[in-house]
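Changelog note: in this version the structure field was regenerated for every chain. One regenerated record is shown below for reference.
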Amino acid sequence: MSDVEVPEQGIPRMAVNLRAQRAPHIAVGALVLAAGAARLAVHTVGHEAEVARWTAMTAFVVAVVAATTISRKRRVFGRKATARALAFVGVAAVWLTTVATVGLSLGAVGVLMALGYGLHLHWWRENRIEPVTEPVVLRAYTDLWHDNLSGVGGPLAGTRVMTERPVAGGVRLTVRLVPGKQELATVTGALGKIRTGLGLRPTDELMAEHHPKRDQSYIRVTILEKSPVLTRDNVWPGPITYNPKTGRVALGPFVDGDGYAQWQVYTNNSIWGGFLVGGQGSGKTRMVEGIVMSVVESTPTVVWFADGHGETGASSKLLRDHCDYFAGTPDQLRIMLAGAHLVAAARFDDMLLDDLEGFTPTDDRPGLIIVIDECHRFFCHDDIQELAADLITEYRKVGITIIAATQSGNLDRAFGTGKHADVLRSALLTGNGVVLRIKSGSIKDVLKLAYDPRDFPPIPGYARMVDEERGAAFRGFRVTDEQIATLPKRMRWRSLSAAEGAAFGPGYADRKGVRGKAKADALRRRQARQAGVHIPAPAPTSAAGGLAAPQAQAVAELLEDVVFPVWPGSVEPEFEPTDSHRKVLDAIGAGRQQPKDAMEAAGIGSSRFYQLAGDLLAHGYVMKEGRGPAAKYRLTERALIQAA
């Protein structure tokens, strides 16, 4: 027998929501029909008292059975929902008995509607009809969940789908776990089985996370058949991705469009680094460049760059050309890291003498981020591995950290194999961790991931955080070639202060000559090859010799930094939205987009509203469509990122 393809049975998206929406109407209507049937029986039989008695008895029995059933499921529905259901059962029994006795009238129906619909308001609030912009056909995931996952012997036995609602591009389930026996980790550990149980395609997105409004026995499971994020161009909006209030950089929107993945840079009295891994074409380097430019433009931060590809700095021309200090060989990185240790020692002295607590970046004491790309080429040296591990674990509190990135699929190789490898890996991932598409399967086991990066779609920027808050993939912003070519030239790329440069030693004063010497050596070798002369490669400098240069000693005062014009797209420091501004933003974000509606929601008058809206327009927090009372205001990417 040949294989026959069975067409997928679908349920229109709006029908899924309307089924829950019309349930209260069905309940009230059924009671009216029952009352009509009782009155018809009175006219037919002619014994009003007898019919009323039997109606009352029947209503009482049905109410007791219904109340018992509902009470047994109190742990599933919750106390409040159970109380409302019991109240409705009681109202229904009393009303039906009364109508069977005194007769059915419009007044009686009105009383039933007022009481019945009043008790169902919470139900409608929990089962809203959400706007749908795409004609997507959904599969009945609730039935599939119960048939394949929650039954006896299933991977999630005892769980129950409470609601199934459409969202942009897919469906969102609210699932109740078995209290005391299951947790979110139970679900994330079974994602593969959930995918097969729900019949998902390889291109479907699956996310599991804590429910934002209920206790932790409730989770949200989102299935996206067409992500609203993955199908659009995701151009980097500029350094506004850095939020000075949270100290975080928005890396890009989650695939369901609900919020942004965040990279933590600064917290109170501290700085954080991190680790990124992704194969060629995954968008790893552009993500690092976006992080660096956002931080450089928005905070007093110095950037050093080491490239495992060598002195060409081929991994990132942007960082190579604009960083304060570049290293392209293991020996050069040894000097850089040893110098960072000496700068840290000077900062510890400052903490002692100036009675400082922790670190806050300032012009005199800027943050220092050392970006090490293709880090596997450096961390294979045990002494570099040790220097890096000590720096991350000990010097975060004085504002020095490392961002390491690699495309190596072998994470044992990525962090090295020396005795400090585990410390280095743990220290990096304590800050931030991002995984992009890569061909190696060892990453899943080494980092204990609930997903396999080999299964990621071949979309640049598609990534997940190692320590996930939402359990969702995200799409990293795409830094364009034009942005790379123009924006860095308008930014201020800082250097260490003269005092901290002196703490580093002569190696810091000579840092700009390293690349010039590398070019001169490369030119000499090329000319020799063209002349047919073979020149052996120079022997690498020993670790001890490499560490000799940065001994602390006095150096000439460094030239003052050149201050470039501020890029117009950056957040203007003199403008900080007030509480009144935020009321307007909240109103617009809640869908009150026309001036009259926004004024009412914000509780402000006309002249004050237009003054506040003008401020928000001028500083890029909202955009305006149309004119006059018919105009509409919408939040910009900046406002959404600042609120995330």
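Spot check on this record: The chain has 27 helices and 21 strands. Residues 161 and 175 are 4 Å apart (CA to CA).
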